[in-house]
Predict the structure.
Amino acid sequence: MSEIVVEGRNIVRDYHVQGGLFTKARTVHAVKGVSFTVEKGETLAIVGESGCGKSTLARIITLIDAATSGELFLDGRKVDIARERMTPDLRRKVQIVFQNPYGSLNPRQKIGDVLMEPLVINTDTPAAERRDLAVEMLTKVGLGPEHFNRYPHMFSGGQRQRIAIARALMLRPSLLVLDEPVSALDLSVQAQVLNLLADLQDEFQLTYIFISHDLSVVRYIADHVMVMYYGEAVEYGTRDAVFTNPQHPYTKVLFAATPRADVESIRARLAKKKAA
């Protein structure tokens, strides 16, 4: 029987915006009754245009923001941060990797301290063991012990994102939320980071929620796909089903607006342009 790591039931998130001198107070419905389940070792990709609510949903799943209504379950346990205190055990279950590798690391902290900080805050691990674990994780993401005492500005964007991934894994979470983790990187570096994520998923049996607007990346990494539009989940299914036979009109428009990079598609576009 498959193990469900994270489940959302009718998740809603509203924001109340105060009125001004010439505007009335209003409520913004950022997420509107979204439901999903992700099994252990699998990847759910959440896709959609900017403003569709995918990053808001990511913040709810990672326990940064509370849902207005609905239920969230982690490893079978109902979690409601609006009504219960965040415990170190709960924090260890889920971690997030943000989009910008340049802004997600403290420029005044050495990389070793960046990696050890989650252990300092959430565990009683001795200092010597913390260092060993940090060096081990650096190696797993393709860096080395020589990088331990360096500062973030000494690394490239791809290396910084590897460090951010290493930091997220220091607590050995069961769920990793990746919010546009490769969109700020060059194409060649994107491929390297995606391959790293796939290898780490296999090694640690990680469960991913992958937030993205890049459909080529989603097609490579996802097991299931959820398409969001104005806060709603308008399509939800396996990767192959969604990509080969999309059902919702918005999904079809989204796919049609994405340029294909294969040779025949490029030739067809050039021929069409020449004819015009």
